[in-house]
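ok trying this again, last paste got cut off
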Amino acid sequence: MPVIARFYGIVIKMYFSQSEHGIPHFHALYGEYNAVFAIESLNILEGDLPVRCERLVKEWAARHQKELLDMWNTQEFKQLPGLE
């Protein structure tokens, strides 16, 4: 699973496999926590993160929502900047 971004110990990944299915989403990993976020709503589909970490991921995803959806649709990997 390619790493799209890293910030504050959070790793954002997205599958680029033909077998990937479901609604457009990305994975956020933080230590032993793992959550799957819907790109369009930014809601957690499964898993969990600490509250502060979830807020940071949603803030980051809101800034890059169009790019994330483009990546999902084209399956073309690119690195995105983290939060500063």
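PB: full thing came through this time. Residues 3-74 form one domain.
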